[in-house]
Each structure stands twice: as C-alpha cells, then as structure tokens.
Amino acid sequence: MASNIPEESTSFVGRQAELRRIDNELTEHRLITLTGPGGVGKTRIAMRAARAAAARFPDGVCWADLWPLQGDGLLVASVCDAVGLADHTARTPVAALCEWLADKRLLLVLDSCEHLVDACRDLLGDLLTAAPSVTVLVTSRQPLDLVGEWTTEIGPLPFTGGNDALTLFTQRAGAAAPGLRLTTPLDAEAAAVICRRLEGIPLALELAGAQLAHSSVERIAERLTSRFDALDPADGPVRLPRHRTLRCAIGWSHELCAPLERLLWARLSVFRGTFDEESASAVCAGGPLTGPEVRSTLATLAAKSVLTREGTRFRMLDTLREYGRMWLAELDEMTALADRHAAHFADFGRRAELGWLGPEQVSWYRRVADAHVDLCTALDHLLVTDPERAQELSASISLFWSCCGHLHEARNYVARALAAQPAPSPARTRALWALGVAVLLQGDLALADALGGECARAARTSDDAEAVLAAGYLIGLTHLIAGRPMSAHTVAEQVLGPPPYDPFDSPGRLRCHLVQIFALTGLGELARARAEATALRRGCVERGEYWTRSYTDYQLSLISLFQGRPEESADHARAMLAAKQGIGDKFGIALGLDLLAAAVAAQGDGAAAARVYGSGQAIWRTVGHPQRGTPELRAVREECEQRARAAIGDEAYTELFHRASEERPGTSLARILAGDL
Fold this sequence. Notes:
The protein has 32 helices and 7 strands. The protein is mainly alpha-helical. It has a 5-stranded parallel sheet, sandwiched between helices. Strands 6-7 form a two-stranded antiparallel sheet. A hairpin with a 2-residue loop joins strand 6 and strand 7. GO terms for molecular function: ADP binding. This is NB-ARC domain-containing protein.
C-alpha cells in the first residue's frame, strides 16, 4: 500500500473532533465533501484524515491537487496522474480512468474543487458508478450536490479561552521571530485579541503570525482593531462573515507589504502551479522590479507566508492568488503578464528541446513535469494569440509529455495548434511530426503513417534537414511497430545518408540511428546490431544522455537473449529500467520488465521470472495496452512464460504472477531495482 499524500511542512494544531468525525464518515460513505471558506484549513484536515485512514485502503490513497487548474480541461488528466494511470490508448481519458479504477480499493482525494464543481460532479458520477470500491474525499468551498454526497462543514479553530487558535498563532509567531515568548500579560492579551479578531481562521492567523518578524504583538493587535473597526465605525466592532474576515486579514497583510512586495504578489498570480526563481524573474521583472529584486522579494514574501516553499519551488495558496489577481487587474497588467508568461514558457520549451540531447536531459524531464500546468496555461493563451508559436511549443515538449504520462494532452494540444494555423511553416512541420508520434504511441498506425508522409513532404518542400530526419524517424518507427523492419531500415538509411556520420549531430539523426539498430535486430543481423548499439550506448554515456541509452540497453538485452547470454541480457534490462525510471517513462519500464523476466527465466529461475513478469503486467495496465512493442517481443514473452511454468509448475507460476500483478507498480519496481526479484 502506498500513497501520494503531500507532506506537511508546518505543525498541525487541534481538529481532533473533526478528524474523528471524518474517520467515521469514511467508513460509512463513498463521497465525503469537506466544505468551508478559503483558508479555514480544509486541505490540512484532509491530509490528516487521509493519512489516518490509509490502512483501510489496500490500493492506497491517491491525492489530486486541483487548485492549479484554470478550467476543467486538465481535470481528468490530473486525476489520472494521481492514481498512476499513464494511458497510451486512443480511448477517452474518462473511459480509461473508469476502467483503471473499476477493481481498485482506494481513497481518492480531490483538493480544491470549488472552481470545478460541475466538472467534478460529472466525473465523480461516472467514477463512483464504475468503481464500487473507491471512496472519494473532496475539499471545496461548496458542495458538489451529487447523489450520495455526505457534506461536512469545517469551521475555524476555537478562539476563546486557552484555545487552538492561540496555540497556532503562538507557534507561527515563534517561527517568524525565534525566541519570542508571548508570556507577559500584555502580550497574552494582545495575542488573544488577534485570535478573536481573526475568528480563528488558520490562514489569517498564519499571516498575522508572520508579521511578528517585524512588529510587536501589541502593534499588530492595534492595527487589526483599527482596520476592523473602520468597516463600521458607528456601531463599533462588527461580526463579519468569515470570508470577509479572511479577505480583511489578507488585505491588511497586503498593506503591510513593501511596494515591491505588493507588485510581485500581484504579478506572481499569473502562475497557476508552482514556480522557481528563474521563471518568477523572467515573467515578473520589469519597471521598478529588477531580476535580483524579484529573487530577494520572493524570500520576503515566503517569510510573510504569502508564498510557501516546496523544495526549490514556490507556491501561492489559491486564496492569496485570487487577491493578487484582483490587484493585477487594478494595475492593468493582466494582458501584459499573460503575454510574458506565455513567452517565457515558449522559450522554456525551446530550451527543453535543446537540452534533450545533452547531460541535462533527465533534469529537463523533471522540469517539464514540474511546469506542466503552466505549460498548458501558456499553450491555451498562445492558441488564441499566436497559433504558430503554440505549434512550436507543443512540438517542443511533446516528446517529454508522450513519454511521461501526458500522451492525451500532447496529442490534444498539437492537434488544436495545427487546426488553429493551417498555413505551411517550419513550426507546422514539427507539429505534424509531434502529432504523428503521439498517435503512433496510441496505436493508430494508419494515421501515424499518413502524418509521417505529410511531414516528409513538408520537410522536403522547405528543405529542412532536421525536419527530414524527424519525418524519417516517425515513418521508420511506424514500420518497426507494424512488423516491417526492412522498410524501417531503408527509410532510416535514406534520411541518414552514407556513413560516416555523427549520430549525435542532432536529435533527429540520433533517433533515426536508433531506428536503424532496431531494424537490424528485427532482420536478424544480430552481430551488426550489437556493434552499433554498443557504440551508440558508449556515446550516450559520454554525453549523459538517457532516453536513447535506455533503448540501446533494450536492444542489447534483446540481442543477448537471442544469442544465449541471459546474464548479460538481465544486466542490460536492469540498466534500461533504471534509466526509464529516471525520466518517468512507464511504457519503457513495462518493456524492460518483460525483457528482465525473459532473461531471468532463461537462467532457470522460474519463480523470479513469474514475479517480474507479473510486475510488468501491472505497469502495462497503467498504460492501457496489453503488452506492446516490436513484433519480435511476442516470441520472447511466450518463451519466458513457458520456461517459467516448466521450472516451477503451472500452479506456482499462476500464484506468483497474480500476486505480483496486483502489487502497486511503484513498490514492485523499487524492489526489483534493488535486486529483490
């Protein structure tokens, strides 16, 4: 059992009664929605409740953050990510998700649904019908109004007497001003006033506590009292609705920020997901805010709890981002910031593509994954304002997305960009290639073949050498998967030209050279394929390149198996798995596990082969395909199973295979990579 519940970065105070109530509700209901105003603590309570209930769900707890989503376009993709589904089929994502969850016994948590209520209602209606053993915990400012929904309202912390609100404020004050003790009568009374004024709302208390780094508790209490009294001076202190209390507290914190801090707060609201210093500087610098000032101001906003640090990245809570966007509109910078945001991520995509071939390749896979929501936001903007640039960006990141669980988004965005700008251009040619690779990975060979031909014609017309290589890769790969290795070899040979040439001259040349090696193996020219794969692997190691290297290990594992070298085959399969895990390529991981199982079976260890083969089956289910790859793998898989069954018997094989196939994929892969077969 595993889970992806976010780690808590600060202490947790109180809420024992709420947690007991939710724990009971999770045993009695299949859909529980925690409601309450922003900043009241719904997310933190959901984290605690999910962690406490995890042992009751054999397939784990799957957490989906919905707060970064601007619309419902990425809702299903976000839930697929959370449950570990990287579907490579042409089915609708909802159909794939329902099928994947149908036999699962897990807790799915959807955090921050209030801006996607209709879409969440529709999705959960389908999921709860298709997956009878799935329980869903939702946080939202309003109920979903779905049949069977159980709603639990989350209120603020108690703020009278010796209370949890005071405890939270005191802890945050101590974090902002280490060594501070609110023990004198004046300090204690001022702290109690702050908690009462802020009505125990956790986010408001966090913001107030952070101010103690620069102010006294008495001064903070005085300022808060003045601000709240000013709302209705004739009647004295007023009892505000909680959302207005929080808005008032946020506004007060905003006023206490320096002018550059307020400006950066507003500009950072353009980011939908987490962001790093580089992106913040590129998008938000300008006018009085220089690049270095952006970096230093990020630190001060984090110290004031406006931003939250997540490793080397920053996050702004949606409640604070909404306030920032209000001020961005007041500054009349909404359009300018959206343009700069899109321009930055278009450049980000270009740099990612350039970095694909070098030593930062794995790092770029991670960076593209971290920036996923903002890349989608940039594409949505460019599809309206600059479709040709949208073609460039979607093509630049398509290989990253196609490998790492976002194949549906890759196909969708490239197709939309092509439809938005039909005029011929180098960007359109690259987008045709990207679309072809996406549909090929989804199993549509006929469409991939047609797109490869269209891409090749456009490349020749524009005399674009790299586009010719890209088209050759797509056409050759289509031939390989269709079982036509001679055709694949011919195409690769034509576009590569006569040797000698450096396969690392460009990404397109490298990929075509890899197609040529695959074709040699398919044609049975094993000695030549081994020599070419070994040389190419050596070049990849020297350059720190992993994607191609993993596929040379795949070929060397397959060749070694055909040549009767099972130990060597197993070593290459393990190397492939390690590389594929590093870039998050589940399709490649599934291929590698099948090869490792075959190599282990060839060594006579039927029990280990059954377990590894079962683990591979679990990964294949996550990509939605029943064991794909080039045709020669079919015989390898059949022989693997025959050998393993012969070694341990049908009953033992079936039991071990089934048990491994039901294990959570991440757990089994970690075990296998650690050498525990």
